[in-house]
Amino acid sequence: MKRKETIRIIRKKFEKLNRIYRSMIIHFDPEDIHDFRVEVKKLKAFLRLTGITGAASGNASGKELARLRLPRKLRELYRITGNIRNLQLQQQHIRKACLTGGIEFPDHYLYVLSTGAATQVMLADYLVRGKKSFKKEERRIVANLPIRPGKKADERYLRMHTKKIGDLLTPLCPTDEVLHSIRKNLKDLQYTSTYTERYNRQPGFLPQQSGYLPLTYPEIGSFTSLLGDLQDLCIGIDLLQPAYINRGNSEKEKKILRDLRGQWLDEKSRKQEEIYVQLKEKFQR
């Protein structure tokens, strides 16, 4: 990819990101937060692709490549909005589970989640106070792009992520961290598919011999969705740790929350095994 084209793509991504950002900071609505975080992930994936391009060309120093990372303030806002979204989703999931099971709402626990989300919103407000866009960060990234992009960097990017996922599928029993890492790598490929798709499933190549990803791009989307649901379940279980459950709740509420946690743990184990088996089958063909 030529440098001019890279700059055009980055500017377009920042344009969309800034538009969503300005909408999000008004009320921190769950949908706005989701859209903002998706655009940040897309930008991160593209910058990783661009960073490999610079490394391959040999024209960018380590310091310059480090500057192709997501800007610090944007990284921090991404982290805080992640906290807000987790607490918002937990409230939704708890209410849905209670309605489905005919269970009384754990009102005190829901209040704890709500106040926690409000605190995180205040932190986000303070972080971006007076900031209307990320134009300054955009200019810095563009200024640090390598002059001459490396050849076939997109192909190497695909091969590298394919190898990472294959290596992560080696253990017999998947952990939360392994499956989360697999999802991140698949997301990277999903968000950069425009630049790597032509190298995948090349005629005459076997995935295990060529290093090409043994998944179609629709399959990548399907697996990232399944792994995303699993990740939400893991976060929900973490938010039902004793430190949250025991925070001033009645014994009746504690029992409701412990029972829900037990159900979610069983569901998590089942989903982990199913997804892991399906992925391994794809990579072992």
Walk me through the topology.
Elements: H1 3-27, H2 30-57, H3 62-66, H4 72-101, H5 107-127, H6 135-143, H7 153-168, H8 176-191, H9 193-196, H10 207-210, H11 217-238, H12 242-245, H13 251-283
Using brief descriptors, characterize the structure shown.
13 helices; 285 residues; mainly alpha; flat
Structural account:
This protein is mainly alpha-helical and 285 residues long. It contains 13 helices and no strands. The two termini are 32 Å apart.
Determine the structural class based on helices, strands and strand pairing. Answer: mainly alpha
Order of helices and strands: HHHHHHHHHHHHH
Strand content: under 5%
Radius of gyration: 21 Å
Low-pLDDT residue spans: 52-60, 203-209
Give average pLDDT, whole number.
Answer: 86
Distance between the termini: 32 Å
Biggest β-sheet, characterized? none
Shape call: flat
Helix content: over 70%
